[in-house]
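Re: the request from the purification team.
They wanted to know what the chain is likely to look like in 3D before they choose a buffer screen. I agreed to run a prediction and write the result into the notebook, where they can find it.
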Amino acid sequence: MATFTCTRCGKCCISLGRHIRIERSLSSVQHYVRNAISGEVMIVTIHPDSRDLFSEEPEEGWCPFLRREQDGRFTCTIYENRPAVCRNFRCLTMVISGPDGTEVGQIVGKATITTRDAALKELWNNLKKQFLFGEPGWFEHMQKGLVAHGYTLEAVT
């Protein structure tokens, strides 16, 4: 069984670090973890494939089980038995709604779209080609282009 490796930004896992704490260690691979949001306490086990990676110190402020691999990707060392707050977390940076207000697409990471709406996906990718991500006005450009076609774009903060 492989561990989860984020090929995107890793920010969602990093940000959960302020809510996930090791309450007590039973061994080097089993730990009681407290979710500071719900108060839930559970036992987690470091995946065998991630034990060497877990032995390295985490970055300050990160989830204590998140590590960055040498290639820059992020790995959750307890992915198979992670707390509910992690399982339920939606890694989104923006949400796209259709004309009726229902969610029809999500933007994950910097600017990757996930949607079942082929026309929306094509529109998003065409708009991205016109303006480089990160340039001043990028969000406004994307928002204006979507609104012209009946969609709305909202940043998730």
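For the purification team: The helical segments are 11-15, 51-54, 84-88, 118-130, 138-147.
Please add any questions underneath this entry.
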